[in-house]
Design a protein that fits this description.
161 residues; alpha+beta; Ubiquitin-like (UB roll); DNA polymerase, domain 1; 2 domains; 5-stranded mixed beta sheet; 5 helices; 5 strands; elongated; 2Fe-2S_ferredoxin-type; metal-binding; iron
């Protein structure tokens, strides 16, 4: 057992954990933050994307010990404390960028990090950036529309379509 301390969604946490604890296990099993999904455990699907010091990473590909001292944001930390959704979360809702919802946390985390670095991406840039995130339901069309809308760009059709 090793002690690890990090900031998760704005709160400092210190826990004793086995050295081989993956970040997905730390978040889901130790902290009970179950919004970070485990889809493959092989770093292929992107359902487990979190922000590590502001950068998107697949939480199934890193040990919690590697995050000692880090600032972690999960999907639970994206909305404001009063419950107001992050612009990407709102756009996913408004533009039907989800179906079953399993990939949605990872998609939102990946998209928000992309928009932090590329505030006005092209549709091709959005599609390229999502390459490491798999969705088996939507065909990505509405996911891309949602991200474009979150960037403040015009989106063909209305949010109600």
């Amino acid at each position: 057992m090793t002690e690890v301390t990090m900031t998760v969604n704005g709160e400092s946490v210190t826990k004793d954990i086995p050295d081989n604890t993956l970040m997905t296990g730390f978040l889901r099993d130790v902290l009970k933050l179950t919004g970070t999904h485990v889809g493959c455990d092989t770093s292929q699907c992107g359902a487990c994307v979190i922000h590590l010091d502001g950068s998107p990473v697949k939480a199934c590909s890193i040990f919690a010990l590697e995050c000692d001292g880090a600032d972690i944001t999960t999907i639970e930390g994206m909305a404001d404390p009063d419950g107001t959704l992050h612009p990407v979360q709102r756009a996913f809702r408004d533009y039907h960028g989800l179906q079953c919802g399993f990939c949605t946390p990872g998609m939102v985390m990946t998209a928000s990090a992309m928009l932090d670095h590329t505030p006005k991406p092209t549709e091709d840039e959005v599609r390229e950036h999502l390459e490491g995130n798999l969705c088996r339901c939507t065909g990505y069309h509405n996911i891309v529309r949602a991200i474009m809308a979150a960037s403040g760009q015009e989106v063909a059709g209305s949010a109600a379509e």
